[in-house]
Amino acid sequence: xxxxxxxxxxxxxxxxxxxxxxxxxxxxxxxxxxxxxxxxxxxxxxxxxxxxxxxxxxxxxxxxxxxxxxxxxxxxxxxxxxxxxxxxxxxxxxxxxxxxxxxxxxxxxxxxxxxxxxxxxxxxxxxxxxxxxxxxx
Length: 137
What we know:
This protein has 137 residues and is α+β, with helices and mostly antiparallel strands.
């Protein structure tokens, strides 16, 4: 488990995902932040991350009622961030997910001021681990 045991200050799944992706874009070497992933792959990645970082299962609750653990919160958050114009998906098969410029602005102006230093550090650690698990395009 992570050395940082932080209780999220009422961090909504949408805000957590937005922050993780915005912070991850700082770890990708300055390229366009776009990665290849199906929804099921994102579920697998976040399930793995939730095993490493104690605060994540409190944000993204995974149900084990199906063949594989699944977080409806994560799936909903991805859809909401797309509707808000913070994330995009490329055709033809929507496997490529990319961060829109508005996501960085939203993180800096809205999310970061609401988070304490410990939570920012925790989210940045998750973001760094996330970057290691995705295939950039």
